[in-house]
Amino acid sequence: MGSQRNGFKKESFILSVDVGTTTIKCHVYDKEAKIRGSCTTKVVPLYPEVGYVEMDPDAIWKGFITVVKGAVQDSGIHLRQIEALGLSTQRGTFTTWDRKTGVPFHNFISWQDQRATDLVKSWNRSCTMKAIHGVMKVLYFLTRQKRSLAASLIVFSAQHVTFRLVWVLTHYKQVLQAVAEGNCCFGTIDTWILFKLTKGLVHATDYSNASATGIFDSYQMCWSGLLCSLVSLPLSIFPRVENTGHDFGSTDPSIFGVSIPIMCVMADQQAAMFGECCFDVGDVKITMGTGTFMNINTGSKPHTSVAGLYPLVGWKFGSEVVYLAEGNAADTGTAIKWAQELELFSDVQDTSAMAYSVKDSGGVCFVPSFSGLQAPLNDPKACASFMGLKPSTTKCHLVRAILESVAFRNKQLYETMIRETHIPITKIRADGGVSSNDFIMQLTADLFGRKIARPQHTEMSCRGAAFVAGLGTGFWRTQEELKKLQSTDELFTPQRVHKEGAGSLSPEYIPVLQSWEKALLRSMNWYNKP
């Protein structure tokens, strides 16, 4: 496809940036969805106090500029050949800033941050929540609507933005003053980068990012006025919400020397789902990165969960909305990186061979809960732990126990998803850095009793944002065209099950799984104050 933008007639490309928890990546994609140039930089998390996880907004912005320029340079093309920019970002990490100057009032507060845990707990125990639960139980009894049942069981979570934002409004006087003056902007990373790219002209997000904050009503498709009035959040600070494939404006020419249309803003997990071409109801995507995120396409209706799965907007184009249900485990890559820093191994690529070098974990169990336990256990006070250590325990046993714990959490999430949604699974695709580990992939396939496909390139969030941006400009025409561009997969077939799809695990892993579940229970509620 040729481009005539800015009077420059040559082959055109799509630029896509993914701002993740540990890295910022940029890829330049051609018409065949092949990567023509790349650049990556690290995100340095800040830990100012125990339980606090922050990021420097200026460092994120500088990293964004660096990877865009680096990827274009690596591809050997000119910026004028970029037809559109797609942006994928981690979700639930936010800051607030001065509407006039664009200067943040504080660092980004990460989705991993635990500062609001006690606030969340007090709210979950409050008379207000008990009253809401009571009213919703009565409504469920009268209407038998599952949404009322879910509302009668709902609890707040520190992973969502809601109470971290309440904490900010309680502790930072300059934010409260800016709110009073009508001069405060709230935004997750996507919103802030959009604001910076357009020199303050655009204060917006998309439905996929908004739906992951915990403040957005995915049923009514708007910021929740009820929730905001309940916890005293001012609606005036929130960005407008646009379609995922929307013309968000263009980058200011002073930034890159040319103006680039911004045609997609998308949350990273939803972008990965789109990049995996999981367009059909029953398609499942497992992203194993810093955390594990398991999503199932539930079609045109949001899933109402009673076990901790979260209903999300996958994407919205025109009037068409696709919903997902999501379960997550927060500490997948975190646990592996921690083990590397302890020098249990030097190269991550060695871990699979280390795990296979011993017949089992020697009775060692690892609980991967540095940030608590998510669905279906939902315990923010759980601790990470090794149990069953002996004098004969080796590094290989420890590494195997860590890798097994990732697959075991995958099994928990998968079983919750099957039990909750009652949607027949059509396909399962895995991506993210940790999916490159063959031991985890094979054990997960064994535990599921299902085939799991892994693409050649496991960084799907960038690809998904590129696909959406490309569809918006006509670079690609249809979702069917995108399916044909999928790379050759590696397929992991269950080996330790008796019957395909039945999830009938071989006898050798039943006691291992039972021991691990016992270790989970012992790790729960560890950080509870007496």
In DSSP terms (H or I, runs of 4 or more residues), the helix count works out at 18
Helical residues, percent = 25-40%
Low-pLDDT stretches: 1-8
State the end-to-end distance: 65 Å
How many runs of DSSP E, i.e. beta strands? 24
Report strand %: 15-25%
Describe the global form.
globular
The biggest beta sheet, please? 5 strands, mixed
Please provide a written account of the structure.
With 530 residues, this protein is of the alpha+beta class. 36% of the residues lie in helices and 21% in strands. The strands form 9 sheets. It has a 5-stranded mixed sheet with strand order 5-4-3-7-15. Strands 18-19-17-16-22 form a 5-stranded mixed sheet. Strands 1-2 form a two-stranded antiparallel sheet. It is globular and about 60 Å long.
Key features of this structure:
single chain; 530 residues; alpha+beta; five-stranded mixed sheet; 18 helices; globular; disordered N terminus
Describe the secondary-structure layout.
Elements: E1 2-3, E2 10-11, E3 13-19, E4 23-29, E5 35-42, E6 54-55, H1 57-75, E7 82-89, E8 94-98, E9 108-109, H2 117-124, H3 127-143, H4 146-153, H5 161-171, H6 173-180, E10 184-188, H7 189-197, E11 204-206, H8 207-211, E12 216-217, E13 222-223, H9 225-231, E14 240-242, H10 253-256, E15 262-267, H11 268-275, E16 283-288, E17 292-299, E18 310-317, E19 320-329, H12 332-341, H13 351-356, E20 365-367, E21 385-387, H14 395-421, E22 427-431, H15 438-448, E23 452-454, H16 460-473, H17 479-484, E24 490-492, H18 510-523
Parallel strand pairs: 3-7, 7-15, 11-14, 16-22
Antiparallel strand pairs: 1-2, 3-4, 4-5, 6-9, 8-10, 12-13, 16-17, 17-19, 18-19, 20-21, 23-24
